[in-house]
Write a sequence for this structure.
């Protein structure tokens, strides 16, 4: 294998690793979604207004441009879907921790013989 090919592979591996590392952070993930959304809106708007005449005269460039726009949309949807699944997973973990914490508090209250709130008004609202 030539030196150039191995350098290209190393560069690609570094880019992919950096991108996957960035996806683990919510703030960076949301920035990527924002900029890809803005880029998609701008590219689509420019395609319909400013580049309209030029693109209609050059069919190959027209196809490449709109495939680029479709690629931006697909990328944006993939990032949004990934963000949705990560947030759901984080919420499930958080709710499991909260449930465990509440169950432990209830168990400790039962073991200590604490009957709970003795106030009749409060007892009515909890039933």
């Amino acid at each position: 294998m030539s030196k150039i090919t191995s350098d290209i592979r190393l560069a690609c591996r570094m880019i992919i690793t950096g991108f996957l590392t960035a996806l683990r952070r919510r703030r960076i993930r949301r920035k990527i979604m924002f900029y890809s959304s803005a880029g998609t809106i701008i590219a689509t708007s420019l395609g319909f207004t400013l580049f309209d005449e030029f693109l209609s005269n050059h069919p190959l460039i027209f196809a490449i441009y709109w495939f680029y726009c479709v690629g931006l949309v697909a990328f944006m949807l993939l990032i949004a879907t990934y963000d949705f699944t990560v947030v759901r997973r984080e919420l499930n973990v958080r709710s499991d921790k909260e449930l465990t914490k509440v169950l432990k508090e209830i168990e400790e209250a039962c073991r200590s013989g604490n009957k709970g709130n003795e106030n009749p008004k409060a007892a009515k609202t909890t039933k």
User: Anything to note?
Assistant: The two ends are 75 Å apart (CA to CA). The CA atoms of residues 40 and 72 lie 6 Å apart.
